Amino acid sequence: MWQEAYRKLFKHAGIPGHLQRLRHTFAKNLLVSEVPLETVSLLLGHKKLAITEKHYARFVPERQALIDLPNSGNLGTLRTQLKLTAQITL
């Protein structure tokens, strides 16, 4: 029911897309503003941080750099690398 209301509102306002687009924009703007990925994950209601990392890590340059590293397909390894990176920068 509420989805139909949003669809009509978007159509009336001339906004292309759907409600998910607002959610994506919200998350992206938070991450670009340097809000921690863990916080964004909580705000989005994701049960696992891995879900947020999968969809939004590209908006956090440090995380994307680690994802792009060779042999970084293991999420546990990625988290370890992030912790080490954080310790080095402190």
Describe the structure.
This protein is mainly alpha-helical and 90 residues long. It has one domain (2-89). Helices cover 72% and strands 0% of the residues. The protein has helices spanning 2-13, 19-32, 37-44, 49-56, 61-68, 75-89. α3 packs across α4 (49-56). The longest helix has 15 residues, at 75-89. It starts with a helix and ends with a helix.
List the helices and strands and how they pair.
Blueprint: H1 2-13, H2 19-32, H3 37-44, H4 49-56, H5 61-68, H6 75-89
Helix pairs in contact: 3-4
- Element order, helices and strands? HHHHHH
Low-confidence stretches: none
Shape: elongated
Average pLDDT confidence is 75
Helix count? 6
What kind of sheet is the major sheet? none
Number of domains: 1
Kindly state the percentage of residues in helix. Answer: over 70%
* Structural class estimated from helices and strands: mainly alpha
Please report which band the strand proportion falls in: under 5%, 5-15%, 15-25%, 25-35%, 35-45% or over 45%.
Answer: under 5%
What distance separates the N and C termini? Answer: 49 Å
Q: Based on DSSP secondary structure assignment, what is the total number of beta strands?
A: 0
Rg over alpha carbons: 16 Å
